[in-house]
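TA notes. Do not distribute before section.
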Amino acid sequence: MMKTLIQPYVRLAGLISYLESPFLLVVRLYWGWQLVQSGLGKLHHLDKLTDYFTSLNIPLPAMNAHFVSGLEFVGGILLILGLGSRVIGLMLSVNMLVAYWTADREALFAFFSDPAKFYVADPYTFLFASAMVLVFGAGLFSVDALLAKRSRSWVEKQ
């Protein structure tokens, strides 16, 4: 009896697991493009971003404005390509947690008490996508996967 219940579930789970890489590709393409757009917008308005960072009492606001803008722009491109995905996923995740901490601390602290406040905050979707790529990697449809395949074949030839 138990076997007849478990076997279909195992088959279904196996089939659904084939969706992992296409799903990660969609996440990377969509949120990577959003990050590119966000970073580009910030790069074009560094003076406004610096003023905003100054109002939040962020140390070295001009330097941080350049760093965050560049990170989002270049990080978005790297996400789209799936290149250095775990490193960039970590950097973007930390960046979004800092965004919560500095600009939306109330939403951050509402994580358990009022989750809706947490997930409607601006950094949420970027944090979620970045953390997803950090944890699961870029998937098969990525430069990372291509480089891993080539490095395995190079090691085997040695």
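Switch to the second chain here.
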Amino acid sequence: MLLVCAGAVGAQTDDAPEVARAQAEVRNLRALVEAGAAPRAQLQKAEEAMADAQDAAILRRTLYGQDLTAEQTDEMMTAASRRFDRRRKALDEAKRLVEAGAASQLSLGGFLEEMDRARKEADLAESRASLVRELTEMAQAEEALANKLAEEPAEAPQIADRYDGDGIFTAGTLARVEMAFARQFGKPLPVSANGETAVHRALGFDHRGRVDVAVHPDLPEGVWLREFLTENRIPYFAFRQAVPGKATGAHIHIGPMSTRLVPGG
């Protein structure tokens, strides 16, 4: 199974130096095992190390990367889970050695630290995946609105309230909104997407020059924000749900409606 996992992700992680070294070690050991010059257990251990190096490379590209699509979050979560399971297995084996009297209690320290790091890494992956899911729901809400505007304009208000203002939204305008919100609520404006993201690109939307704010339009922060935007003639779309009948994707999109990406543009 380790070799199957390695084959599934190897094409995306081969460029990582540690992965290349681990793969070379596996090839060498496989040849030695086939020649009867090395135990198969040593090869299995090397295969586990290779799989772990590949998962670490996946996490550097996803968990610690700049931008993610919804599909990449699944890969990230799976890699973090596998690394956590390996640390748990290693700790269990170390505990058995201690119980058998073959190792001291102090030997567990390193395994416990590795387990704790893997747990924190898995928690971080879950947190980032949650943010990407939230952003995906917001982007899907905008996609639904765009489709309604194109196909059934009269039904578009069911998805979002629209205010065109003066049609202008710039970085300077955003700075004014952020400062006003911070003064009003004593915390930063909860911006979930500032400009282009991988999620919007995947859906075929040009989100440059637009901002999504993770507040429900009908809760106090959302009501205040809509009033501020209206008073200052700043365009926005207030989404209460991504799809009629489902309470997902609620947010306030500041700026003009996102446009469709033009291939090659």
